[in-house]
Write a structure and sequence with these properties.
binds S-adenosylmethionine, eight-stranded mixed beta sheet, alpha/beta, 2 domains, 290 residues, Adenine-specific Methyltransferase, domain 2
Amino acid sequence: MFYQEFVHQQMLLPTKPKGQLLKWVGNKYRYAHTITSFFPDRYNTYIEPFVGTGAVLATLAPQKAIAGDVLVPLIEILRLLQNEPQTLIDYYAKVIRSFNQDREKTYSEILKRYNTSPNGLDLLILSRTCYGGVVRFTREGTMSTPIGPHKPMGPETFAAIVMEWKERIKNTIFLNKPFTETISMAREGDLVYCDPPYIDSQSILYGAQSFDFAELIAQIQQCKSKGVKVALSIDGKKKSGTKTIKLEIPPGLFEREVYLSGGSSMLKRFQNEGREMIGEDIHERLLLSW
Ligand SMILES: C[S@@+](CC[C@H](N)C(=O)[O-])C[C@H]1O[C@@H](n2cnc3c(N)ncnc32)[C@H](O)[C@@H]1O
């Protein structure tokens, strides 16, 4: 039975982390509460094959988890968070101090260093200082977003977020692997949450070129046949619901579909050079296999 629900963000449960580790447009930080509220009460291992900035993982704070991503610097950040949180805190404090003294110079140095040698520490700073948190990569993998006009979060606030997130992700094994490898680790009784790269407007943000949706569907089918529950986030409706993204999803694979309403999109505003998009409303869609 396939039924639809419309869920507004006001329904959020009180377990959200106090702030985001990375400022990253398109991540699931503001939806994570609602998304996790649809997860079952009981499961063995929680598996997240497209962990990204870890927003859903950190909100769930699972007892036992495996999380993967192909973007090396992201996994570096999450591993540092788990094993060397002080390194993140110290680096942030040092670089933000020099950023606040000479913004343009510090930003261009970090951007250059990251693009020469991609690494987690510089990606962290770029995500916190770039324009609107629009972390954008070219096809070659270089980061291209200009500096943002805002004052970045202070080092003390950032340190408090690190310590909170460290606790929330302490039971997770992080893998720098394609989703096919991470998802294939799921066993009966496990829960998988997939937030693949956006197929529509955000493909550029998350390197969607390495991602095959049909392959993901095949993996989800296998999970279901093994007794694994799967939740899948996909791009929902755009332009206030007039355009629905068409994706080939076999009938019967998912039992429920949830629309999450989230207001207008920062990405659209950025692409329109700061102009407000009237009538734009991105709806997140969540499909549940149980
Ligand atoms: C939409 S983002 C996930 C965002 C995440 N839910 C969050 O809140 O930050 C998709 C992620 O999938 C990763 N990705 C892209 N192709 C992948 C692949 N083939 N296997 C694993 N991860 C992949 C990207 O690096 C990106 O971090």
